[in-house]
Write a structure and sequence with these properties.
Radius of gyration: 21 Å
Oligomer: single chain
Order of helices and strands: HHHHHHHHEEEEEEHH
Number of strands: 6
Largest sheet: 4 strands, antiparallel
Strand order of the largest sheet: 1-4-5-6
Domain Myb-like: 9-61, 62-112
Main location: nucleus
Distance between the termini: 25 Å
Number of helices: 10
Region (Disordered): 123-178
Structural class: alpha+beta
Strand content: 5-15%
Keywords: DNA-binding, Nucleus, Transcription, Transcription regulation
Subcellular location: Nucleus
Length: 298
DNA sequence: AATGGTGTCAACCGCTGTCGA
DNA sequence: ATCGACAGCGGTTGACACCAT
């Protein structure tokens, strides 16, 4: 289709955000919620385009964002998800609590792709690199490895150790066969969280979902009509205030959203989570991961 | 101390998909 | 069926920080 850039208007600010702009944006969203990005800047008193506001909020100002200090487990999860999903950063980020697609993308490009290369793996195909290519790449990366890790270590000093990586409810997915008004799309995405707790209403954009932990059941059954029975996710909250709640969410191929509350005081959630981590770590379960990935892409 | 090379990441750009008029 | 508005995605850029020389 193509149309003029949204920031082409004369007088609009570009580049880094000032603290004052951040404050204006945060205050406006706290009072009015997310969305309506086009009209938001004017109403909030910002000389920015809506797109810029949305990006700033999504990638930086959202209260549930966890920045930096990506753990080894998260590394592993990102690599595995990338091997399944490719450069679908939004989908990958949707499975890591508090991580944004931009952060995952940057982290991939600056760290993980190099890490894979140094391990002899092609970061695009996830297949083994040939020996000559590998040697050449190692030569180059060896020179830079020190600086990267050292700087990363310094940055990490002041930060708190993150939680284990969690598997997350997908962000809203465009589905041709699934048609709802814009507002309802968000509601559907939040159905599961809304059912379990009302404390996630940080904004209209479903912020609460970033604290949701999903663990797939291991005994899925695919019906003849393509529906998946038992392809559910045990869902709990990463938020310490909500560790007493979790629920089952059926994530069928037609984006059905169902929910039931389950008790959690017996630690079954933790067990299932560990079970899922095990599943992630074993290559022979690649087939499970593949079907998991397919379920995200429908 | 100065300088050039490199890494990082916030922000921008261009595009696509969806929806409603 | 078409078009414009809007939201969102992935690729790219550029400013800045850091490091080696």
């Amino acid at each position: 289709m193509g149309r003029a850039p949204c920031c082409s208007k004369v007088g609009l600010h570009k580049g880094p955000w000032t603290p004052r702009e951040d404050t204006l944006l945060v205050k406006y969203i706290q009072n009015h919620g997310e969305g309506h990005w086009r009209s938001l800047p004017k109403k909030a008193g910002l000389l920015r385009c809506g797109k810029s506001c949305r990006l700033r909020w999504m990638n930086y100002l959202r209260p549930d964002i966890k920045r930096g200090n990506i753990s080894a487990d998260e590394d592993d999860l990102i690599i595995r998800l990338h091997s399944l999903l490719g450069n679908r950063w939004s989908l990958i980020a949707g499975r890591l609590p508090g991580r944004t697609d931009n952060e995952i993308k940057n982290y991939w490009n600056t760290h993980l792709s190099k890490k894979l290369i140094s391990e002899g793996t092609d970061p695009i195909t996830h297949k083994k690199l040939s020996q000559p290519v590998l040697q050449e790449v190692k030569k180059r990366s060896g020179r830079n490895a020190k600086t990267s890790s050292k700087r990363q270590a310094n940055k990490n000093k002041a930060k708190v150790e993150p939680d284990k990586p969690k598997i997350h409810l997908p962000k809203p997915v465009r589905a041709k066969s699934f048609s709802l008004p814009r507002d309802h799309r968000l509601q559907c995405n939040n159905l599961s969280t809304a059912a379990a707790s009302t404390s996630h209403s940080k904004g209209a954009g479903g912020l609460g979902t970033d604290n949701v932990v999903l663990v797939p059941w291991s005994d899925d059954v695919v019906r003849d009509d393509g529906h998946v029975e038992g392809t559910g996710f045990l869902e709990g909250y990463n938020d310490h205030d909500h560790h007493d709640h979790h629920q089952l969410v059926i994530n069928g191929s037609d984006l059905e959203c169902h929910s039931n509350l389950l008790p959690t005081s017996d630690g079954s959630l933790e067990k299932l989570y560990e079970e899922y981590l095990q599943l992630l770590r074993t290559n022979e379960d690649q087939v499970h991961l593949d079907s998991f990935a397919e379920s995200l892409l429908i």
